[in-house]
Amino acid sequence: MPSEPSAPLPADVLSSPKRSPSRAIWLGFLLLAAATAVAIWGSNGSRVPSLPLTSTVLAAEPQNDEPSEKTAKKGISKSTKKDAAKKEDKKDDDAAGELENPFPKRFKMEGTELDGGVEWLNTSGEISLKDLRGKVVLVDFWTYCCINCMHILPDLKYLEHKYPKELVVIGVHSAKFDNEKETENIRRAALRYEIEHPIVNDAEMKIWRGFGVRAWPTLVLLDPEGYYCGFISGEGNREPLDAIIAKVIAYHKAKGTLDETPVKFDLERQRVKPGSLRFPGKVLADEGSNRLFITDSNHNRLVVTSLDGKLQEVIGSGAAGAADGDYKTASFFRPQGTALVGDKLYVADTENHLLRVVDLKAKKVTTLAGTGEQAHFRANGGPLRKTALNSPWALSHVDGTLYIAMAGPHQLWSHEIDSDAIGVFAGSGREDILNGPHSESAFAQPSGISSDGKFLYVADSEGSSIRKVPIASKGEVCLRRHRRSRQRGSIPASAGCAVPRRQPLRGRQLQPQGQADRRQETRSEDVHR
Questions:
Q1: Fewest C-beta in 10 Å: which of 3, 190, 242, 498?
Q2: What are the pLDDT digits (tens) for 374-429?
Q3: pTM metric for this prediction
Q4: Which stretches of 1-74 are DSSP H helices?
Q5: Containing domain of residue 477, as a range?
Q6: Is 453 exposed, middle or buried (0-12, 13-18, 19+ CB in 10 A)?
Q7: Count of CB atoms situated within 10 Å of the CB of 343
């Protein structure tokens, strides 16, 4: 996978502060009518009916044995309508040869357009669904702070690259937090996640409401004739989506309604100049060795400088990958948090779903934990190299134990250094803001972690809260600061809270009194003193 271009690192890497403003997830296609439904938890905490994802049930119409009042007045029986529909389906099937329409009960939906967006990105102008006739269209409803939305981006990219002439993905960014309504912030998120399809800023949630969406992320499938086929929410659905899209393409290609003209978009990245750093994720200062460790996330590497910003070393080739080796041949994929233990630097290799170790003396990188595959939700742990991880985001070391903010399953994990085990330390896996014993507590995408030796302090990003977690197993997880983003979670908002509602928290390093604080701007390309 190609990495973002980078400019040569200057001798002084730090910049001055700028003054200018800046399978527990629910899944399955929600049908308009469901013969059999199973309620599972959605990513927004709601309960929704779900059906198995098969091409025979994706686009079922509302079923009603009695004719409607309007139909009865016209003297048209339901059986007559069914006969007409069958004739139309047969006509389509005859046109497509031996292939059967994978969505025989597809239909037009009123109000499902892309109107109402504030601004478009990754395109030179607005796009309507009518412009996309002849293409299979996958509409992605997302918000950039959501870990589940991040997790499906590789699936979307896979599908876009597999079907470059037949499929068009449209991102509809429907914000959760106020600051996510700002187009510039969405633009930077598109650059950080290397999104290659058009995005509309649905700041007022008009498109969201028009499609009847209820959770992030939600994917809506439309066929080349503009018919609604169904939608699916949550993550982990690449294979069924791929199979369904392949059937739609085959059917409409045989029918002659598929447009295979290549489509090119005006991507935001084409207007960006290479920089020394690219969305640095985390920073770790070590006063004793006069070193600053910067995870240059979108350049897939670590940059080591002195505390005053003089370049010392670069760890990683810059190519996205998971190769072990020396500093020049090793590779990472958007790494985030680090923890320094003696001459070993532990790295949360986030999008590889791995923990890596950098031997600073031998100048070698090795893999400590993970399989390279994203774990299913609520995994319990096990042997280091046989246990899949899920977006490890931040690290903290306390008395021989490494604590991991595991953003994907909304948990904290731990690993006793020199052991061969890794597992859950706190959090049930439910996405929420719940205090209580370690195993009963709940987090919401923990993305930053630090410690004073007795407690872990966790930036709980989706809950806009700071959590206090006792390292002793008999204590209870509690809330330090919180500002409710919407009506979710089981903890009341704290009075006088200093955490703004408009910004999901990512993390900040605790510093001894009197020591200079350094912070990284994950949505910019700077590290500030």
A1: 498
A2: 998 778 899 999 999 999 999 999 999 999 999 999 999 999 999 999 999 999 99
A3: 0.79
A4: 69-74
A5: 372-511
A6: exposed
A7: 11
